[in-house]
Amino acid sequence: MTIGRYEVSRADLNFTVDEYLVGMDDATDAESSIQRLAITGGAGRIATALRDRLTRTRREVMLLDIRDPSPPADLDRGETFHSVGLDDVDRLAELFRGMSLIVHLGGLPTEHSWEEIRRVNIDGTYAVLEAARRSGVPSVILASSIHAVGYHPVDAVADIPVPAPRPDSFYGVSKVAMEALGSLYADRCGLRVLSLRIANFGERPHGLRGLSIWLSPDDMARAVESFLVDTTPGHRIAWGVSDNTRRVVDLSEGRAFGFEPADDAERYAHLVANEPEPGDELLAGDFLAPGREPGEEF
Questions:
Q1: Strands 6-7, 2-3: parallel, antiparallel or unpaired by DSSP?
Q2: Is the pTM here over 0.85, yes or no?
Q3: Residue 30: inside a domain, yes or no?
Q4: Burial class (CB in 10 A: 0-12, 13-18, 19+), 13
Q5: DSSP of 41-105, one letter per residue?
Q6: How far apart are CA 62 and CA 298, in angstroms?
Q7: Is 243 exposed, middle or buried (0-12, 13-18, 19+ CB in 10 A)?
Q8: CATH number of the domain residue 152 falls in
Q9: pLDDT tens per residue across span 262-287
């Protein structure tokens, strides 16, 4: 027979009322100890790579997107999926209740028109942070980008833990706005917020430039896990970059909250063309390819 959602046999019913109530208290404690994460952009490239890496006992991962994830959410692994847009603050707040952490990966991943970037990336980040505030979520990771600082020369940032904003595109502007909103919601509303400046994410580095700024999926997962256990309040900005031999950025801000990347792009160096590409002298890379206009999709 079933009591609530617990299957029991008749032999199991041979206990006192006090024992039953104690058992229910234990069940409640166990329920409250489950760690819950929500990932916006749950059908996207980064979220898909993270899913296996974030699976844990006593952890639930909720995927949120406007398209179905592939493979589908696996209930046996503690995954659920909800179709919701970044423009629905009320629905997001409802889904976020009880979450330990929001990982905000949703949005347009490359350059688009100003109208689209503003609506999806900037307004979408506001919606996620506001929903987190309303629902009492303590911590949020925002997927910022190297393109928030893309106009910095590559050789000018190695000793600067957090280079000042210098966006290379409307997309980059949206990431600067994302970081500013993260700072506001941390200072004004008490959220813990990490803006992770993700660079060259993928299973392998892309191009010669990628050998210096690659972020492996395993290291992306390490960043999430590290921020989960850190308790430092406020907003911080850190690089989402692996511990590459040719690294050109400072990883100290990530290490300050326990993020120790372990992968090195150098093991793929023999697979990468040894010729620089146009734009490689700037952090922006091919976002500033000759003839490309602001807002031009590619």
A1: antiparallel
A2: yes
A3: no
A4: exposed
A5: TTTSHHHHHHHHHH--TTEEEEEEESS--SSPP-GGGTEEEEE--TT-HHHHHHHHTT-SEEEE-
A6: 30
A7: middle
A8: 3.40.50.720
A9: 999 999 999 998 888 878 899 999 88
Point out the catalytic residue in the list 6, 171, 185, 268. Answer: 171
Question: Annotated catalytic, 185?
Answer: no
Q: Mind listing the pLDDT tens digit for each residue in 45-58?
A: 999 999 999 998 89
Give the number of domains in the chain: 1
Rounded Cα distance, 22 and 16, in Å: 10
Alpha carbons 298 and 279: distance in angstroms, whole number: 15
Residues spanned by the domain of 179 = 36-288
Report which of 174, 137, 167 is spatially closest to residue 151, judged by C-alpha positions.
167
Nearest to 179 by CA among 167, 163, 192, 196: 196
> In whole angstroms, what is the distance from residue 158 CA to residue 23 CA?
56
